[in-house]
Write a structure and sequence with these properties.
mainly alpha; 3-stranded antiparallel β-sheet; two-stranded antiparallel ribbon; 62% helix; 3% strand; transmembrane helix; NCS2; Xan_ur_permease
Length: 490
């Protein structure tokens, strides 16, 4: 089975469409609003765990915005051998949060930066291996991963809808959930509008309208927007020079492997959505951009970079496939990194508003995966059980986050992510059943036969020329009835 490719030329690729400055700015800003909460969450969590002051955590956030913007520009615009030139937004990866917290307990923030630099360099060296797996990402595997990405993100949308912060008194309140529901309704209504521009901007407009409604009811606060500097340049090694510990590097390298798997899945997923060709060279360029940006991010005070799955969903729900739109979003991120005041404005958007839009957005990702899986052939093969096992395996850490708590840290790091769990299972089972065919039985299992009518070769061998079946009876060429033996008969 080969991966799906689409016949495109360099000049006719869907991702190369140029929509104009205004459209790029509007759609690009929509991308940033979609992922802003995620990109600031990691520096907040890690900074607090490392014992940094609020001002220092603010610098971590600014650095993460700047690094994410630069990484997005590298991925979308590209340089020779770096960047897949697809509409992928880059930002701080969630995959390494637990590992970085553990590292900070033994060496502080400097040990985290050193581990990220060294592990990302190792990841850069092994990207040629990952770039040669395109034939192992047919629609079967890609559909499984896309579906799991959407399902994995739904708890994030649900938490946002409830208020985003479990420590607050109004977390899960009726007001928060009602605001999320109103925002979701606005998205749906705007999507139904006949005007194509309004429909495509439904997420952005819903976020703006939802924030206005929240402000009118006193559910958001813009008073802190004026606090702090308006402009600030990122500082190289502001937190001190990185330190390099062997154990920290090894544990972070496991995170890098997970990041490579997830980024590969996101590249193939957005390739499916955009309907453009993704070959081993393009995948390799994307992975190299991922690793290079991850290796350089600690210089500015940030962490590992990877593609944001929620923005893959935004491409699917809006139908805007241009990489220049996402590149504009990268420029906005860089500006947010240089202008902390703009970041404070975006941060004032209430979590329930993000949650209402996220339900539609992340659900669209899962729906795109299901659409991809509908193209898979399930006749007389094991594809059905591959889909069932892989999605089920990926859902486990989503519904039971503590499932791997008693396992070694490296096991938890790899399989705590539903995306990497399903991707690894899908690739392994696809190899086992569809590539390593030695030992496969010519009689399909109960799973392979579950949705298909099958007849054994031994039964067909008993038929003769002219035999026919009518009214529940078998007849020979002369019209004589041939006795049928019931199951278990002799």
């Amino acid at each position: 089975m080969e991966s799906t490719t689409y016949p495109t030329t360099e000049s006719s690729r869907p991702e190369d469409e140029k929509l104009g400055p205004f459209a790029n700015l509007a759609y690009g800003f929509q991308h940033i609003l979609t992922m802003y909460g995620g990109i600031v969450a990691v520096p907040l969590i890690v900074g607090q765990a490392a014992g940094l002051s609020p001002a220092e955590i603010g610098l971590l956030i600014t650095a993460s915005l700047f690094a994410g913007g630069a990484a997005t520009l590298l991925q979308t615009i590209g340089l020779p051998f770096f960047g897949c030139q697809l509409p992928l937004v880059q930002g701080v990866s969630f995959a390494g949060v637990a590992t970085m917290i553990a590292i900070s307990g033994n060496g502080g923030i400097q040990a985290i930066f050193g581990a990220v630099i060294a592990a990302s360099f190792l990841g850069l060296l092994i990207t040629p291996v990952f770039s040669r797996i395109t034939r192992f990402f047919p629609p079967l595997v890609a559909g499984i991963v896309i579906t799991t990405i959407g399902l994995t993100l739904m708890p994030v949308a649900g938490s946002w809808a409830m208020g985003g912060n479990r420590a607050t008194a109004d977390y899960g309140s009726q007001a928060n959930i009602l605001l999320a529901g109103v925002t979701m309704l606005i998205v749906l209504l705007l999507s139904k509008v006949g005007n194509a521009a309004i429909s495509r901007l439904s997420i952005l407009l819903a976020l703006v309208i939802g924030t206005v409604i929240a402000y009118a009811f006193g559910m958001t606060d813009f008073s802190r927007v004026a606090e702090g500097p308006v402009f600030a340049l990122p500082q190289i090694f502001h937190f001190g020079y990185p330190t390099f510990g062997v154990a920290a590097i090894i544990s972070m390298f496991i995170v890098i492997l997970v990041t490579l798997v997830e980024t590969s899945a996101d590249i193939f997923a957005v390739g499916e959505i955009v309907e453009t060709k993704v070959d081993s060279r393009r995948l390799g360029d994307g992975l190299r951009a991922d690793m290079l940006s991850s290796m350089l991010a600690p210089f500015f005070g940030s962490f590992t970079q990877s593609a944001f799955a929620q923005n893959v969903g935004l491409v699917a729900v809006t139908g805007v496939k241009s990489r220049y739109v996402v590149a504009t979003g990268g420029l906005i991120l860089v500006a947010l990194g240089l202008l902390p005041v703009m970041g404070r404005v975006v941060a004032a958007i209430p979590s329930p508003v993000l949650g209402g839009a996220g339900i539609v957005l992340f659900g669209t990702v899962a729906a795109s995966g299901i659409r991809t899986l509908s193209r898979v052939d399930y006749a007389n093969n094991m594809n059905l059980i591959i889909v069932a096992s892989s999605i089920g395996f990926g859902i486990i850490p989503i519904v039971i986050p503590s499932f791997y708590d008693q396992f070694p840290a490296w096991v938890e790091t790899i399989f705590h992510s539903g995306i990497s769990s399903s991707a690894l299972m899908a690739i392994t089972l696809n190899l086992l059943f569809n590539h390593l065919t030695a030992g496969n039985s010519d009689q399909p299992s109960v799973f392979g036969a579950a949705s298909e009518r099958t007849i054994r070769y031994a039964d067909i061998a008993q038929l003769r020329d002219g035999d026919y079946y009518a009214d529940g009876k078998l007849f020979d060429a002369e019209g004589n009835e041939v006795p049928l033996i019931r199951a278990g008969g002799h």
